[in-house]
Design brief:
heterodimer; A: 166 residues; mainly alpha; B: 182 residues; alpha/beta; Oxidized Rhodanese, domain 1; four-stranded parallel sheet; 8 helices; 6 strands; 47% helix
Chain lengths: 166, 182
């Protein structure tokens, strides 16, 4: 089954020079981040459901479903990135999630919602909303790493890194 | 269509898109299967369709619905038999708050609570409030108050907006002096 074919192909990062090591580092780092981020959510789904609720984006019907599925999705993606397996799918899903997280934080910042409490505030007090900016920069950094992986995976000849052969 | 194919063939992209989509589908299905399966095995499993109403959330956290109605809050206010606590950030508090309310935030709870609550009997009725239908600050401050021994706590849901809309006594400015006067 072709979907398993990627397991026999070299993972991104096996090309030449600095680019190879940067891509390998990005893959490993993102993989570890995803696995680490998933663990607490898997252990404490109720608390994570509360967090999802505080984003005030999903309808109530989807909150618990998201809290149940999303942590395992992160865990799977992280594991696949670390092991270098199913890279097209892992990188695609990873970037989709990172883009979603980044857009969500940006959207909530724009409407003045503090996602830690689910409350709207016009306060510029760093203790109340400064962490939103931190989330934005952090998620933006992760997204950049993810986009690098995406480029290496889907544009191998341009990136100079070994191709994921079709 | 032929021209599009020729154009695409000139673009140096590997061709794993089909594989990527298939793998993505398998990953999502696998995550859902494991997630729902593990949820079934948990003793504290999440219900697939939970009640996220304010009353349900309060009952879940405090064992009972500690929401106070506006009429009851008004009665407590005018009789002076409750301490009102504004859980919003200081800046929002300064712009306007329930008259006589103290500011007590989650982030600065330890620093503020000592001065505010020193000498206050633990059975004092404390009404916390914030602003917005989904705001959880009042709940979080109520939880912290409960942790330090104050059991007689009520929450005025969407308190600031509701209080203002009913033209009840408000004021603005810096927090009151931290005293135990009621």
């Amino acid at each position: 089954m072709e979907v398993f074919g990627a397991a026999r192909k070299p993972a991104p990062g096996k090309g030449r020079g600095l680019g190879k090591w940067l891509s390998f580092g990005a893959r490993l780092f993102l993989g570890l981040v995803f696995v680490y981020a998933s663990i607490d959510k898997i252990l404490h789904p109720a608390a994570f459901a509360e967090t999802v609720y505080n984003y005030q984006i999903l309808p109530n019907l989807l909150i618990n479903v998201t809290a149940i599925v999303l942590p395992w999705l992160e865990f799977l993606i992280g594991s696949l990135l670390i092991l270098g397996l199913w890279m097209p799918g892992a990188v695609f899903t990873c970037n989709a999630l990172l883009l979603l997280f980044f857009a969500t934080v940006l959207f909530n910042m724009a409407r003045g919602l503090d996602i830690d409490c689910g409350c709207f505030t016009a306060s510029t007090d760093p203790s109340s909303g400064g962490h939103m900016l931190w989330y934005l920069f952090r998620d933006g950094f992760f997204l950049l790493l993810g986009l690098n992986l995406f480029y290496v995976t889907f544009f191998p000849s341009r990136s100079g890194v070994a191709a994921m052969q079709a | 269509m032929e021209q599009l194919k020729i154009l695409l063939s000139k673009v140096p992209i590997a061709k794993p898109y089909g594989r990527a989509l298939r793998q993505t589908l398998v990953i999502i299905v696998l995550a859902a299967a494991v997630g729902f399966g593990m949820n079934l095995l948990r003793s504290d499993r999440l219900a697939l369709n939970a009640d996220w109403s304010p009353e349900a959330r309060l009952t879940s956290k405090f064992g009972k619905n500690i929401m106070i109605s506006l009429d009851e809050a008004k009665e407590k206010f005018f009789s002076g038999s409750a301490l009102f606590v504004d859980a919003r950030p200081l800046e929002d508090y300064r712009e306007g708050h329930i008259k006589g309310a103290r500011n007590l935030t989650v982030t600065a709870f330890e620093e503020q609570a000592f001065g505010l609550l020193l000498g206050l009997p633990e059975d004092t009725l404390i009404v916390t409030y914030c602003d917005g239908e989904e705001c959880a600050l009042s709940i979080e401050v109520a939880e912290k108050l409960k942790e330090i021994g104050f059991e007689n706590i009520r929450i005025l849901h969407n308190g600031w907006t509701v209080w203002k809309n009913h033209r009840l006594p408000c004021e603005s400015g810096s927090p009151h002096a931290q005293s135990t006067e009621k």
